[in-house]
Design goal:
It is a single chain. With 402 residues, this protein is α/β, with parallel strands linked by helices. The protein has two domains: 16-196 and 359-371, Rossmann fold (3-Layer(aba) Sandwich), CATH 3.40.50.2020; 198-355 and 379-398, 3-Layer(aba) Sandwich (Rossmann fold), CATH 3.40.50.2020. Helix content is 33%, strand content 21%. The chain has eleven helices and 16 strands. It has helices at residues 25-48, 114-128, 157-167, 198-208, 229-239, 288-299, 319-326, 343-346, 357-368, 374-377, 380-398; strands at residues 16-20, 67-68, 80-81, 89-93, 102-105, 108-111, 134-138, 172-176, 191-195, 219-223, 242-250, 262-268, 276-284, 304-312, 332-336, 351-354. A seven-stranded mixed sheet has the order 12-11-10-13-14-15-16, sandwiched between helices. Helix 6 links the parallel strand 13 and strand 14 (304-312). The protein starts with 15 loop residues before the first strand and ends with a helix.
Length: 402
Amino acid sequence: MANNYVFNNILPVAPLKIAALESCRELAQKVNNHIVEFRRNDTEELIRRKQDLNYRGYDVDSYLLDCKCPRFGSGEAKAVINESVRGADLFAMVDITNYSIPYTMCGYTNHMSPDDHFQDLKRIIGTSVATAHRVNVIMPFLYEGRQHKRSKRESLDCAMALQELINMGVSNIITFDAHDPRVQNAIPLNGFDNFMPTYQFIKALFHHDKSLKIDKEHLMVISPDEGAMNRAVYLANNLSVDMGMFYKRRDYSRVVDGRNPIVAHEFLGSSVEGKTVLIIDDMISSGESMLDTAKELKERKASKVIVCCTFGLFTNGLEKFDEFYEKGYIDYVITTNLNYRPKELLERAWYLEADMSKYIAAIVNSLNHDVSIGKALSPTAKLQKLVQKYQAGGYEYFQTIE
């Protein structure tokens, strides 16, 4: 293994503990396994260099905290931690999008909502914050992140949630591809880090498709709307290809399902004829807008349409994606494992997954040692190295990359 995670003489700020809520257990287990591997490699490397290890807290087989949030028959809940967290550097992980977890309330079966998950997170914080050295929150899908600004008489939920966590004593909030990262202005004096999965998207893409040609004549990056422009510009610049954008023309005289319906998609950019196009965005909710964009690109004679979205929510089900795949409008869809994915999605022929567990493990390991996370925040060098190796020798060279 490379020595990227060897911190020489830098000790952890405190013993590491990962409090994984039920919504995030599978991902947390993968993160834990990576950290255990990092630290075993760290120990071996430092011994090889004949450096004094002192105390590092590396001699453990798992950093996962024994905790749970049981519920009473009335639907109320509490947090229980079954081991000491005194002096620990605690990382609480929660997936507020996980709708698969049921609980019984007065004889009825409910499924946990984002509000329920957020309350459980606060319960874990309330149980540990008094004695832990530091409490950090890893919330891949930012709670109420889509309600990030106020345009009329409405609540500003995301800002209130961030302030509530900070007031409880949370030191750092870690999220991924926030719908609008400017919401961190609600907590300007506290830690808020927003990471992007761009590198993992391209890695998953190269693993799957060994025939891609990374140049302006064969590849193009597409933003499905003006909100995703920054993501598309960053990726297009690193791949050295052109980009285009769709402008959603909406009917502002009507509101359907809480939003103004889209009248038409207007395309701004050069021709996509014969090219592979990457559509990049932060989430697939119902998927209607993304599918309309894919159809428009295929009708403009794009060769392949590949969708890259951080969070695949698929709130209206998968049937429409099946239909568009069968009709040839989409070639495949890449999302991360940062949120809950039902078994049916994982079995779809058009679905690919970008694994984020090693990335999160590197972030947690770095924060626990209080070292810079600048390279993780902007993985430009790794992304460009990945592209160069792929172009130099195709998939065989790519397999050697970490």
